[in-house]
Specification:
globular, 13 helices, mainly alpha, about 300 residues, single chain
Length: about 300
Amino acid sequence: MLIGVIGAFGPAIGAIFISGILNEKPTGIPPLRRWGVFVLLFCVIFPFALYWQLLNGNPADPVFFALCAILVALSAFVISCVLARRRGVRDLMSSLSAWRVSPVWYVIALAAWPLLIIASSLLDFLFSGQPVLSYAAGLMTIEPLSAVILFCTIFFLGGPLQEEPGWRGFALPQLQGIYNPVVASIFLGFLWQLWHVPLYFTGFYPFDTWAIASRFIWFLPGVIVYTWLFNRSGGNLLIAVLFHASIDAFPQILPAQTSGAAFVFDLLLLVWAVIVIGTDKMWKSRPVFHAAHSPVG
């Protein structure tokens, strides 16, 4: 499991490597400054890895301890690339530290997904005649501190930082330099889902042929919403990472959904996608970002 989580850094490391090759001009940032930030991040993130229940390891086990150190080092490395010495890497990662964006994008990135989950569950309870108060009681059992710890763990180690520099930070701007946002989302979404397929063969997800196939059917509304949020926030990587963390964390924080609620959720997400396509005319608009996001070549 832990080795699989480490391997999930592929998109981010790949994007950083390619960006560094494409633009090797120096940024003038002192190396000591970057590595100081790296060490600080390592110390902050390491406890999250050691006690992450998903990894199901013993902190006293030296092998587990060493693998956790590798995982944390990769996370600290990716974040510290905002201070990279190569201009290409710095341009790719700079918006990860660009926190001065409109508060509305933080609200959407952090709250939209859990609100969809809660709304779909409440609607399913209403349609099926179940008492809504039973779901509300489940919400009351959430421990805020545990929820924050889980969210931070996933933010640093559970997928967002491993993937988003590659998917939204690098690939999406390149694709949108060629295609409109809808077509770019389809291409990127297919690659994004394909990247997750091996997890069904490693035990991270229960193996299910239909679950694998359905990833390629139901991914589109979500990836279109993701593209819309990325574009509307000005290509902000921090917002993309927070949204990814929200998608991964809140299904584990909130009470489990019934099968009916999952269907309602998909419908609500589809409605959201249709609305943003229409309001932003995503079939023809091509967002213009900083030069760092311009197409290669």
